[in-house]
Amino acid sequence: MVWILCVPMMSFAADLESGKPNARIPEPAFEFQPVVEGTKVVHDFVIQNRGEAPLDILKMESG
Q: Does any domain span residue 31?
């Protein structure tokens, strides 16, 4: 009886997730080595879209 109730709920949850973007960031943090003050440092962060819809990045901040 429990299994019968779970199957419709699982398929409904899958329907809600299909067609959406799904952002994945394999390396969400990066620690730079010490550098002389004023030296420009650069690092590229990879953002992957594993979803089925376009992923729009509207704002990005560093910290």
A: yes
